Amino acid sequence: MSIRLRNGVWHVDFRAPSGQRVRHSAGTPDKKQAQEYHDRLKAQLWRQSKLGEQPDRTYDEAAIRFLAACEGQSDYDSKARYIEYWRQYLGRLAISQITTDDILGNLPTHKTHKHKEPTPLKPATKNRYLATIRTMLNMCATWGWIIKAPHLPAMKGPKRRIRWITHEQAQRLIAAIPQQWLKDACILGFATGMRVDVLYGLEWPQINLRNRSAWIEGDQAKSGRARAIPLKADALAVLERRQRKDGYVLARNGKRINDGDDRMFAKACADAGIENFRFHDIRHTWASWHAQAGTPLLVLQKLGGWETLDMVMKYAHLAPSHLEAHAGAVTFWSHEAETKKENGIQDCALNAVAA
Where's the Core-binding (CB) domain (predicted)? Predict the structure, then answer.
């Protein structure tokens, strides 16, 4: 028999056309999946022997090369975690054998907890799992390991409104924070719109107080593009007070701050009477203030480091006034009526002179 059940897991066992014996685990307790894996593997070895085809690349080969290409990126640890997750379901398959059904059928649906019931995953979380495996397979296509990557549509989530607060609420929030480093982090966030990982990863060599600017490296930016951030009075006041020659700008006890203090931030929000507000919403607030102040969306895109203009359009509704200057550029009825009125006045004037 070509497949056998051992300790609850199916194994394949057959002779390849070359005479070599193939005997190993199929990596699944499902007989149907094991039989499918056996048939694919046997057909692949036949094509290699009889038609001279190149052997398929394995999942592990693709994972190693993909992670090597991503080394140094700010989200490297997350990508490594997602790649390890997919390995338990796709590791037995060659890259060319992975299908859309293989991926969507094993997409996680719930988050497990130690002391409570599992909770459903949000579409955004599922999309992060999909994004990693999609990127790896697209890179495999670029390397020539597969002809085309399988299609992986993104999960659609509910539309969410942009959460932002007023200047007065922001002042109350900052006043309610007892920790100076967290207070300074909020001020810099409201003043520059930097993402939380960029904010806490900012080092003093990236600050130029004389030129009133900060420099964000490409490996720190989500878009992968380096950019300069202008520093205004509020940000400069914090930086001048904390000024050092090296190290992290927002270091705590000489060490980098990784994730801030969500509990202290939530307490400060409650004390300031602000509901449903996260630290990342400081960036939304900064962008909303710019839109309300009339900053052009293309300029806002550059200031905030967004990759596309579509990412900034969610703030467009906050600045309707930027359309007013152009709304009257095209008229047809009122212009004609105004012209007739002016002509009528001129005719009356001429008649009066003639009389």
Answer: 57-141
